[in-house]
Fold:
Amino acid sequence: MTDPRLALAERMGVLPGFHDLAGHWRATSVETAVALLAAMGLAVPTAAEAQAALDDHADRLPQDVICAAGSRPDLSLGEWQLTFENGAEAEGNGPLPELPLGIHRLRAEGRELTLLAAPPRLPEPARCWGLVAPLYGISETGIGSYADLAALAQGMGGKGAAFLGINPVHAGFPTVPQLFSPYTPSHRRRLNVIHLSGGAGTPGPRVDYARDIPARMAALRAEYDAFPGDPGFDAWQAAEGEGLQRFALHQALSARLGAFWGDWPATLASPDTPAAIAARAELAAEMRFHAWLQWRAERALAAAGQAARDGGMAHGLYLDLAVGTHPFGAETWEDRASFAFGASLGAPPDAFAPEGQNWSLAPFSPLGLRARAYAPLAETLRRQLQFADVLRIDHILGFERAYWVPDAAPGAYVAMPRDAMLAVARIEAARAGNAVIVGEDLGNIPEGLREALAVSGILGCRVAMFERDGWHPPAFRPAESYDRGAIASFSTHDLPTWRGWRQGADITARARIAGQETAAQQQERAEEVAAFDRLLPDPGVDALHDFLACTPSLLVAVQAELLLDMADQPNLPGTVGEYPNWQLRLPAAAGDFPALPSVARTASIMRDHER
Structure:
């Protein structure tokens, strides 16, 4: 007989197990099931408690209905009450009216339903290429800024690039300079203010966050102290409403109590406690400063996007949405109910991480998302698409299933409402003017996910070092076999560059951390390099870019680091893009980068293959 705790966990979306990359079945244990249920807010340590919860939750799970925008949902109903996304209400009996684009709520026959009226499929973009570069590293000194981004975008637009992709620019932790990874954000609906221009930066091959973040924040504080006021700021602040005020309060409290709300007094555990509400009056001046920083950041990022379009880029900026958020940052403080606590996002064991991975990121709870009619996801996507015509969703495998790692038990997969989440992505892309959505579909890919992405018109990622027909011995796929509905590149932000891959820099870096021998892995890499080289006329980066340009993929991403791997940059600070590295500065500033001979050669290669 199945333990009720396992049965309840499966009812709530915890998968009973999974096959790892080696084909071994890993069953979900009772210990893991109990821990993940607790993370969802269901504390059922005993079988009896789980059985009672099973009976209680039998018919209480929210339901989703997806239909084409402008059509009637295919539902057979008696009396119903409908609340449209804009707040308008209607009621009736029988068929529902045609639904406009958006997310609507329906109450009928004692049930609550979420109606997602979405385009069935996003339109294909025209075939094009663009540059991807680490924003933090495109300055000669200090941390790369939104102003540097604007200069690079305008220059690359003149070279024929259709988009400029960067790392996530979500709000971070400016009071904790060592927590600088763009993939561990505090709030994904607010912007990172360390990318505002200001302060004297530190020159050198690496970004000195410990020195440059405090210097930049001090310069911004001085600028704010001299700020005479602006009606535009006042109007923007009023339009942003309660969400901005909660974020600003969090930032003001962070400066006083520490960055992570889990360390704060329990009386300040959420923005709705009496103590937090009372703190608004005391911290009003500090809150205004943090609101001003967000206003400045939004204006600067919008200006960079306009510079990209003015420079000739068809798509402008290509932003990156991090897969999760810090468990004790501003996003979870503001919206506790949408996240799971006591479990982190991660990845199961594989060849790269035999013990699995724990990313220390709070996952969206499928129950929380459904209870709020997917508003947190929709708002997060909408914020990014406010500034970008292309959006990459990091680890979109999490739309199908997310690997949760509890604090004191093995991890397991949790099923997510994939079809509803994809519908939300289509709604927000359409709302933004048919933006392009790219899903990072790499790793242990669930069956059917890539097909679902293709049906939605969401592009996948085809990374050349992983595109193979065989691994032992290595057999790489020719350019013409790449998928059309994808963005093609050689590497990614957290993998080695062309030169680094060929030299085994990632193998050396992992071995240095783990104290491993590398001879066998380096021999395997040499075989991989030889196999890939057989697809190219020569082992140079020009030949690699010619290969990528020959693929049918709709988008081709040229990585800034690869252009700097070339012979016209002989004094590189080690191997650019060493696996993984968030501190390395590119040896060419934003304004100088488009003038590099390697950029001109690559642009010429891409133009020769336009079709």
Notes: Residues 567-575 have pLDDT under 50 and may be disordered. DSSP finds 19 helices and 23 strands in the chain.
